Amino acid sequence: MQHVKIPQDRIGVLIGEGGETMREIEAAAEVRLDIDSENGSVAVETVGDPVLGLKGPEIVRAIGRGFAPEDALRLLEDDMMLFDVVDIDAAARNKNDMKRKKGRLIGEGGRTRELMEELTGADVVIYGSTLGIIGAPQEVDAVRTAAEMLLDGAPHGAVYSFLEEKHNEMKHKGMEYHRFPGGQS
């Protein structure tokens, strides 16, 4: 059994209307969730496939870090799906710096965050003092690198170029890997 602590305001999202989301997670990840809505503590107990059960705490953590339940459940799509968190607070000197860095990651009208998602294929959420990422290893790696570049003060243009380069790299590798076995050209 694992214990995961999530923010108070995310407990409702984890439980869902009438417990619907909680039941969906329990069924999909073959776990049992014991949610303490007083302190935000969630006990995750594996009741089925132990490999699937390992993803249970990650799904709860992802919802706690601001992901919608359907995005968090993407972690079950594939054994390679990862959930990663970039701590914005650790890169900030004070509250104002934290706000500024968070703003750089979100971008004007959310454009930077959207571009990170579009160009990598990963899901990206900025919540509180963290940036959460769900995706395949190369997608998560690209978003983490882009976020770290922005937090280090790199110009947005340079970060967008980096993301486009990564996008083309992944697309090219994907094309080679998923060749159409039809012989048509």
Automatic annotation (TrEMBL):
One of its GO terms (molecular function) is RNA binding. It holds the Pfam family KH_1. InterPro entries: KH_dom, KH_dom_type_1, KH_dom_type_1_sf, KH_domain_protein_archaea, KH_PNO1_2nd. It comes from the Archaea. Keywords: RNA-binding. CDD domains: KH-I_Dim2p_like_rpt2 (cd22390). Residues 1-81, 82-152 form the K Homology domain. This is RNA-processing protein.
